[in-house]
Here is the input.
Amino acid sequence: MKCSVLSLVAVLVFVSAASAKTIKAEELRSHLLSALSLASETELFIGQIEEGRILQQFRMGHADYLRQEARRQAQEMRESRSDSGDTRAPARCAEQLELLIHELTVIRVPNHDETLAGARQRVQAIREALKASRS
Here is the structure.
């Protein structure tokens, strides 16, 4: 009985370790660039909302699209580790994308434009953190 429990634990550890996708350094840079692009697009989107150039329906739809993309990228980063074995860079990227998801949830809501200035500042901070992760 003890042997079967230990072998089950060993199999689970092996499967969980094997499930983390290893990405090469250039792939990691590409993912970071993509996350940076998403943050930049969000910042531009906030500017368009502030200028009143976005219809409410488009605002909600585009925020949802950006949020889904950020969620997809964050999930991919959480499931990855760099080929050097480093899990910190993908984890930092995923963390920043999670923060971006939160901001996109906030800006999606119509008639809460008083929160846009704060959202813009937080998205700028996310963008700067992603830039720092690239180096």
